Amino acid sequence: MSKPAPSGSITVLAGPTAVGKGTVSTFVRDNYPEVSLSVSATTRSPRPGEIDGVHYHFLSQEQFEQYIEQGAFLEWATVHGLNKYGTLKHTVEEAAAAGKRVLLEIDLQGARQVREALPGAHFVFLAPPSWEELVARLTGRGTESPEEQQRRLETARLELAAESEFDQTIVNEHVDVAAAELVQSMGIAPRTA
Q1: Contact residues for 180 (Cβ-Cβ < 8 A; gap 6+)
Q2: Alpha carbon of 78 to those of 91, 101, 117, 125, 155: distances in Å?
Q3: Domain containing 49 — which CATH number?
Q4: Is residue 5 a part of any domain in this protein?
Q5: Is 167 a domain residue?
Q6: Is the model's pLDDT at 2 over the cut of 70?
Q7: What percent of the chain has pLDDT above 70?
Q8: Distance between alpha carbon 111 and the CA centroid of its chain, in Å?
Q9: Is the separation of the CB atoms in 111 and 122 below 8 Å?
Q10: Are 61 and 84 in contact (CB under 8 A)?
């Protein structure tokens, strides 16, 4: 059992593609205002219903490259060989300086970079209930082509093998339960229904 993260600290949530990191993070954002959810930047196109600045900061390749050159990212990576994702330093630093508990929802590559930059952060691995459930979630959302689904599943196998690098594992069988476990690990009492 891991100890809760201290106030004003940073928690990194990572896990394989389609495990529900975004869904759990959104639940936390909507139900736990004391948590500051870091909004990642990406070069991928918005999915239906996604809002710039809320779900992601959607950037062009050129904008993203400028931020890299300026050293503006805490971490960044090219994911699935296609799009870039990154966490802007200033958003994390401002929230942590204000004493907020900061949640970074990022991929495995980004989590490894954050561990190098911020070894005192708390690292949580979000796992699927089973491989079959992960495949069903990825194919069921219908936002990627069959080729992209296959690429993501190949990446997911590698990501699942990295679970031991994390301080804690939470199985995402039910979003509300996974979110409650996550905020509890951040030192916040989960809400009761």
Answers
A1: 190, 191
A2: 20, 27, 18, 20, 12
A3: 3.40.50.300
A4: no
A5: yes
A6: no
A7: 94
A8: 9
A9: no
A10: yes
Residue 9 identity (one-letter amino acid): S
- What per-residue confidence (pLDDT) applies to 142? 74
Nearest-angstrom CA–CA distance, 26 and 7: 21
Number of domain units in the chain:
1
Taking a C-beta distance cutoff of 8 angstroms, is the pair 79, 62 a contact?
Answer: no
Question: Does 132 reside within a domain?
Answer: yes
Angle between helix axes 146-160 and 131-141 (nearest 10 degrees) is 150
Query: pLDDT at residue 1 above 80?
Result: no
The residue segments making up the domain with residue 69 are: 10-185
Strand 122-127, strand 168-171: pairing: parallel
Distance from C-alpha of 122 to C-alpha of 168, rounded to nearest angstrom: 8
Sign of CA dihedral 69, 35, 51, 127: positive
Phi, psi for 56 (deg, rounded to 5): -155, 165
Other beta carbons within 10 Å of 23:
17
DSSP H or E run through 79:
strand 73-79
- Confidence band for 131, pLDDT divided at 50, 70 and 90: very high
Q: Amino acid identity of 192?
A: T
Evaluate whether residue 48 is within a structural domain. Answer: yes
